[in-house]
Amino acid sequence: MTGPMYPGWGPEARRGLWSVLGCACLSFLTCDAPAQRSSFNNREVVPPDGTGHYRILIGGHFHGTSNNRSGYPAATLLANLDTINALAANVFVCTGDLFMDPVNDRPRYVRALFSKLNMPLFNAPGNHDAPAVEDPRTTLLDIPFNVGDSGATRSDRVLILDTEQDNGSFTGDQLGMLEELRDVPGLRNVFIFSHRPVWAEDDQRYDGLFKDNTRSLTGTNFRKDVYPLLEKLA
């Protein structure tokens, strides 16, 4: 995974703060999960197993190529549904461009994808994903777990943000969600998902990585307002 891991953060990025960007491949990470229901397939997040671990499956650009006018998800995605379900993930996160046409394609997605997934699906809205009323633009999952035999409870947070809402900037409620994380007791890891790699736009080391991605014409507030918050969390 890729994120704003600047040299001063150290090898463990201290509390493991990640920014996960949109990509066309699938991957998963296994960690240590509360019940929250997906607006797409109405499934709830399954709690951790007996060892306290959970799994997040990550993908993106589910509509496939820009030439796909079928109204269905990419054929490669549908062909691998058995494999995806066999991974038994607690959460499936799409990092944006779930749909080509979020209004007209949705009934086909329900039949072909949503109804067949055995795990809750969440989406970080992309430029094709004007959310329906029932689809949240942001999602915050709180994942509590016990620390060994001590009985102490700590937590991980999964934060899914919308980079389309304010042209790549995080303001208002979204910035507030990041600010509030500073006051969460026992916070261990924060996993942040968004469609646009906004952390790369104003950094010369990364700004050439995603040349064809949607970008803000006037710049974002990542370096000014967001990155300082991430440093404090780390």
Order of helices and strands: HEEEHHEHEEEHEHH
Which strands sit side by side, in order, in the main sheet?
1-8-7-6
pLDDT averaged residue by residue:
80
Proportion of helical residues: 10-25%
Structural class by secondary-structure content: alpha/beta
Head-to-tail CA distance between termini? 17 Å
Strand fraction equals: 15-25%
What is the CA-based Rg, rounded?
Answer: 18 Å
The general outline is: globular
If helices are DSSP runs of H or I spanning 4 or more residues, what is the number of helices?
7
Number of domains: 1
Low-confidence stretches: 1-28
Main sheet record: 4 strands, mixed
Beta strand count: 8
Structural commentary:
Helices cover about 20% and strands about 20% of the residues. The protein has about 230 residues and is an alpha/beta fold. The chain has one domain. The strands form two sheets. A four-stranded mixed sheet has the order 1-8-7-6. The chain has a four-stranded mixed sheet with strand order 2-3-4-5, with no helix packed on it. It starts with 12 loop residues before the first helix and ends with a helix.
Key traits:
234 residues, alpha/beta, four-stranded mixed β-sheet, 7 helices, 20% helix
Provide a concise account of the structure shown:
This protein is an alpha/beta fold and 234 residues long. The chain has helices at 13-16, 75-79, 81-86, 106-112, 172-180, 198-201, 222-233; strands spanning 17-20, 27-31, 54-59, 91-94, 121-123, 139-147, 152-160, 187-193. 20% of the residues lie in helices and 20% in strands.
Topology readout:
Elements: H1 13-16, E1 17-20, E2 27-31, E3 54-59, H2 75-79, H3 81-86, E4 91-94, H4 106-112, E5 121-123, E6 139-147, E7 152-160, H5 172-180, E8 187-193, H6 198-201, H7 222-233
Parallel strand pairs: 1-8, 3-4, 4-5, 7-8
Antiparallel strand pairs: 2-3, 6-7
